[in-house]
Design brief:
With 335 residues, the protein is of the alpha+beta class. Among the domains are: 14-56 and 129-180, Bacterial muramidase (Helicase, Ruva Protein, domain 3); 232-292, no CATH class. Helix content is 49%, strand content 8%. The protein contains 14 helices and eight strands. The protein has helices at 26-40, 44-52, 58-64, 73-80, 83-95, 97-107, 111-122, 133-143, 148-164, 187-193, 209-222, 256-259, 294-300, 306-334; strands at residues 14-15, 18-19, 131-132, 173-174, 232-237, 264-265, 277-282, 287-292. Strands 6-5-8-7 form a four-stranded antiparallel β-sheet. The relative contact order is 0.12.
Length: 335
């Protein structure tokens, strides 16, 4: 995930009656508390006690400085495209087949995409994170200027979420960036996209894989997934002009007829009304080139990285192939 550990100035937060032993910025915390009290009706003393138990984390800031998405594709890919993750994905599919089929019927999202997201994020709920969400979000909200506004918003959403669900904010653990539960939703996504898919009266993404399945499907549906449409496909390259149309913007922006002059060769019959994105992935001794369509862009709404989206797509395809192979054998054995 720069390999540079930045030193931090330790500030002692002093609030009336509360002694803080970690370095949360007192002025920023007090401003945040005032906002939560005024805007959402929180109790001042309760929030002071809560922040009294919240710790600054150098570990979180270090992790933010070295994301896995800084790796080359061939390094990133081998983290996720493993036989064990594929086989676990097939088992997850078989165990939750009815819920996955219902999610496809309701939201139009294929099972393998839902499974792959959950597989990439937490290995199907096995690893949901070891960092206290409150510590992570507070550290990033008050000590990560690059994205402080975003994380203050997520901290606000987290406190609203835990109040709605009657959960102690200090009891919850997740990723270093504050993502939570089986599908690793950030707080705003939890409140916006989580669904009670098993109709038990709770939107539980912590322990309930059925709610996680429905919530991931709802997330993709709300972000515009096009049912039955392509996600991405490989292309061949001639000449050296392709780099002229490669940029960091993940949104598709170029039409099929425009690609020929840049030396892209592909056999897919793509209408010229469709927008495409040229993707370049680093292998050890060469580059692979792919074209991403709208559905590829939708995957990047979950994590704004082409590496992430490609890992999800390739894992989903591998899971689907293995699932179909195993179910075909099982049907033969029954006959």
């Amino acid at each position: 995930m720069c390999h540079l550990l930045r030193s931090s100035v330790i500030l002692i937060l002093i609030l009336p009656g509360i002694g803080f032993t970690k370095s949360l910025d007192s002025d920023l915390v007090n401003q945040f508390i005032d906002k939560m009290v005024t805007k959402h009706g929180f109790d001042t003393n309760s929030l002071r006690i809560l922040f009294g138990g919240t710790k600054y984390s150098d570990k979180v800031l270090l992790a933010m400085s070295q994301p896995a998405e800084d790796l080359a594709w061939y390094q990133y890919r081998r983290i996720f495209l493993k036989d064990t993750r594929i086989k676990k994905g097939v088992r997850f599919w078989k165990k939750h087949e009815a819920s996955l089929n219902r999610a496809e019927d309701v939201y139009g999202i294929p099972p393998q995409i839902i499974i792959s997201i959950i597989g990439v994020e937490t290995q199907y709920g096995q690893y949901k994170g070891k960092d206290k969400v409150m510590d992570s979000l507070a550290t990033l909200a008050f000590h990560y200027p690059k994205r402080a506004d975003f994380f203050r918003g997520e901290l606000e959403q987290f406190l609203l979420l835990t109040r709605e669900q009657n959960i102690d904010p200090l009891s919850l653990k997740g990723s270093y960036a504050g993502a939570m539960g089986i599908p690793q939703f950030i707080s705003s996504s939890y409140r916006e996209y989580a669904v009670d898919f098993d109709s038990d009266g709770k939107k539980d993404l912590w322990l309930n894989p059925i709610d996680a399945i429905g919530s991931v499907a709802n997330y993709f549906n709300r972000h515009g997934w096009e049912t039955g449409k392509l996600v991405t496909f490989p292309v061949s390259i001639t000449g050296n002009r392709v780099n002229e149309i490669i940029n960091n913007d993940l949104k598709p922006h170029i039409r099929p007829h425009e690609l020929k002059k840049y030396g892209l060769i592909f056999n897919q019959d793509i209408p010229d009304t469709v927008l495409l994105k040229v993707l370049k992935f680093e292998q050890k001794d060469h580059y692979d080139y792919w074209l991403g369509l709208h559905n590829f862009y939708v995957i990047t709404r979950y994590n704004h990285s082409a590496l992430y989206a490609m890992a999800v797509y390739q894992l989903s395809e591998s899971i689907k192939i293995e699932y179909e192979k195993e179910t075909a054998v099982e049907k033969q054995n029954i006959q």
